[in-house]
Design brief:
The chain has 133 residues and is of the alpha+beta class. The protein has one domain: START domain (Alpha-D-Glucose-1,6-Bisphosphate, Chain A, domain 4), CATH 3.30.530. The protein has three helices and seven strands. Strands 1-7-6-5-4-3-2 form a seven-stranded antiparallel beta sheet. The N and C termini lie far apart (45 Å).
Length: 133
């Protein structure tokens, strides 16, 4: 099976890497910034779910305030398929934080859907959420 890889990035104004890192890994705040319930065990080996269980996985690596690596899948993945890999990179830039996602090992035909999903369901709401602080 040929797997897909996507990359997407945005700048979130007025926030620090520490603040964004903590929000990504906090159940209540992750849910507040996306508008959908999340359950996150914020440690290496910890499990997470988001979007009412549509997204689920395990945190594989944490580099505080810089990098999060997760085994990641949705209920749309074919039965028996391996998890994809989601790498979240945070970098302080002038005026905010650049968040870059490297999402690999996505089942064939689903890459563009997830790229658009990151934009619509994470990046845009994240910018709105942090602009209110």
């Amino acid at each position: 099976m040929i797997l897909e890889t996507i990359h997407c990035s945005t700048i979130v104004p007025g926030v620090t890497p520490e603040r964004l890192y903590r929000a990504w890994l906090d159940s209540a705040e992750h849910g507040a910034l996306t508008g959908s319930e999340a359950q996150i065990d914020p440690q290496v080996g910890g499990r997470f779910t988001a979007w009412d269980g549509y997204i689920q996985g395990t945190t594989l690596e944490l580099q505080p305030y810089r990098r999060i690596l997760q085994a990641w899948r949705t209920s749309d993945f074919p039965q028996g398929s391996a998890d994809s890999r989601l790498e979240v990179l945070l970098e302080q830039v002038e005026g905010g934080v650049q968040i870059t996602l490297h999402h690999s090992d996505i089942p064939t035909g689903q890459g563009e859907e997830y790229r658009q999903g990151w934009e619509d369901y994470y990046f845009q709401p994240m910018q709105a959420y942090f602009s209110g602080e």
